[in-house]
Fold this sequence. Notes:
- Keywords: Heme, Iron, Metal-binding, Monooxygenase, Oxidoreductase.
- The chain is α+β, with helices and mostly antiparallel strands.
- It has one domain: CATH 1.10.630.10.
- The protein has 16 helices and twelve strands.
- The strands form four sheets. Strands 1-2-8-5-3 form a five-stranded mixed β-sheet. Strands 4-12-9 form a three-stranded antiparallel β-sheet.
- The longest helix is centred in the middle third of the chain and has 32 residues.
- The model has no long low-confidence stretch (mean pLDDT 92).
- The structure holds protoporphyrin IX containing FE.
- Protoporphyrin IX containing FE binds next to helix 11 and helix 16.
Amino acid sequence: MTKSTIPHPPRRVPLIGDVLGMNREIPNQNTLVRFKELGPIYRRTILGTDLTFVGSAELAAQVFDDSKWEKHVGRPLEQLRPLVEDGLFTAYNWESNWSKAHEVLVPGFTKDAMVSYHGTMVEVIDELCKDIESRSGEFIPAVDEMGKLTLEVIGQCGFGYSFDSFGGSEHPFVTAMSRALTYAQDSAIPLPFIGKWLRRKEEQQNEIDRRLLAETVDEVIATRQQSGERRSDLLDRMLHPEAAGEGLDAKNIRNQVLTFLVAGHETSVNALGFALHFIAQNPEIAARMRAEADAVIGTGTAQYEDVPRLRYTRQVVNEALRLWPTAPGFFRAAKQDTEVGGHKFSAGEWVFVLLLAVQRDLAWGPDADQFNPDRFSPENNRGRSSELFKPFGTGIRSCIGRQFALHEMTLALATLLQRFDIAPEPGYTLEVEETLTLRPKNLRLQFTPAERR
Ligand code: HEM
């Protein structure tokens, strides 16, 4: 079988290619639907560029094989390069700064490091609860509210910097970041002719956003340098590397700080949003989480060791990340001539693995589209193949912040459940919007102090 046999959407337009049936607003959800029509692998060819999508566990397993495939910095990630250049997330595999930074920063995510961040996470979650309590009974925009939490947590734990998120209006960094990600996503699909001209205004806005993001990062770094303070955090590790010669240059430190502010914030906030949506919609799930939090944490403050014992809460987090992976997929490139599902790929060719489809593979059962945290119970976890659940990516370039995110989200949800009854807005049905990530659109929830406290 040759690569030309890979299915493509119907009605190919001469010269331009497979432009019909594209959806620029929700491209990932559109791709999910296409798999149902075209099978687990298909290709759009637009203006000569091939975009190949993989959407089943069986084919994903082939592409996750690190001996044949590796991370690819795809178009949307390339669009972020003017902003974060060779930061960990967007670095090309061959860039020496990737391995340098990986070595310097991995110790910032060990168990000891996580223990050191725990107290700050507890404090920020407490501030979040106070903020929510001051608006008790109102329907509040849940994603914006969780954004205050995740920005403060990464700002304070990673860089000893507070964005004063609970002080007043949203920090301009958040708006600029969200727009920059949407801009990157929009650039993922090549635009025929007139598109470039239509995007002039967005390009200008993107310039402004990039400047603001860069200025914010400079302020975060300058604040630390001026104070001369030493802390056990990510910034300290970069500014004062343990071994001589291991250091990152100033430009790369800047790229890493911005990378962490974006990567450490955007995906976690949206995952919390999805989890809260399902918790609000399912009172029996909320009741189980609350009973667990009461049993594990009791009436005091959550300790570090409590978090791994919040097993059901973690199942809820996992299930939210399965059904709506906030990083909806990632790119993989062939390291050698190889095959996927019998289709030939030459070295350097790439595919986009849509987790949104892979994590709903029928191997999860006929109800794969339903939210059910019991899928992740210890007995159901036994024997499941790992490619069915990859919300944090795969291989050496998978998420460095995985434990950080899981600890933060589990702790935050358990604390919120202990303190509040959470109700959905009447009539709300989940709609998912896409920047580079997925997020619940217009999700507003009502938090009322839990009656028994
Ligand atoms: C629910 C939360 C999160 C999700 C779903 C998530 C998902 C991912 C995924 C899928 C990748 C691999 C992307 C690729 O292969 O192109 C990745 C990489 C990365 N993530 Fe996360 N992430 C989350 C939270 C975090 C947090 C909290 C941090 C930082 C504190 C972080 C920092 C990074 C970095 C720096 C990379 C690039 C790693 C490398 O290539 O060396 N992420 N993440």
